[in-house]
Specification:
about 250 residues, five-stranded antiparallel β-sheet, 6 helices, three-stranded antiparallel β-sheet, alpha+beta
Length: about 250
């Protein structure tokens, strides 16, 4: 149980007599120390602790959850621990050295160098920043209403394979899908220069559970909560070298 997501999965199954008790129990599970604020809601108490976990560990797996109830503390957090009861499942693609043939190694070095210089994830004053790969330009979306409470979305985004999701959430079409983007949170591993570059490319070429964010004012983003997982995959390994890095 090394990563933050596994610990949250375990914590989500605990039962306490008071709603805020679950949030306070994270203090011992993660070894973090925060003052208890009188009158603080259970939602804000959880938000403060999740923010501290990210800041202390830099572990963005905290953001890997599915559900429609997001926190008022920060839209990237859930309102409670219930969404962590389900562990994320992504079928990984076996590494294939053949795919490395013809890749621009210099571009790969520059990408790794850029990512390695970024500060790790943190949350300050309720605002999360974390190293990530951005796949903007959600170009076309086809929505089909399967029944009154279920929607099928066929989504095309830059550098990603087309994906189809079925959801009970009706995403606000009036907002314009071109204001949405998919984000892949990443964590750089340490190791020898040559190995870490290829390990990074292998990591970025794997399917991933993307965050669906909507652009807002002041260069900030709001997460769109949904009851389904957006599992995305890049079109090809070469396209990874032209991705957009954000923090």
């Amino acid at each position: 149980m090394d990563d933050a997501r596994s610990r949250l999965h375990w914590a989500s199954r605990r039962r306490t007599t008071r709603p805020e008790g679950i949030a306070y129990s994270l203090l011992g599970i993660f070894g973090v120390h925060l003052p208890i604020m009188c009158g603080e809601s259970a939602e804000d108490a959880l938000g403060r602790r999740l923010a501290e976990i990210i800041s202390r560990s830099g572990d963005v797996s905290v953001l890997d959850w599915v559900g429609e109830w997001q926190s008022s503390f920060n839209s990237c957090f859930p309102a409670n621990l219930a969404p962590y009861q389900t562990m994320p499942l992504v079928l990984l693609i076996p590494s294939d050295p053949v795919k490395r043939v013809g890749l621009d190694l210099e571009k790969a070095r520059k990408l790794y160098s850029h990512l390695a210089r970024l500060p790790r994830a943190r949350c300050v004053y309720g605002r999360i920043t974390f190293p990530s790969i951005v796949h903007p330009s959600v170009t076309t979306v086809t929505m089909k209403v399967s029944n009154p409470s279920r929607y099928t979305y066929r989504i095309h985004a830059s550098r990603l394979m087309p994906l189809e999701v079925i959801s009970m959430t009706n995403v606000d079409e009036d907002a314009g899908w071109n204001t949405f983007l998919f984000v892949h949170g990443i964590q750089i591993q340490a190791g020898s220069a040559h190995d870490v570059i290829w390990d990074l490319l292998d990591q970025l070429g794997q399917p991933f559970n993307a965050l669906l964010l909507k652009r807002s004012l002041h260069n900030e983003y709001k997460r769109i909560a949904c009851d389904c997982t957006f599992t995305a995959c890049v079109q090809d390994t070469a396209s990874i070298l032209d991705i957009v890095v954000k923090r």
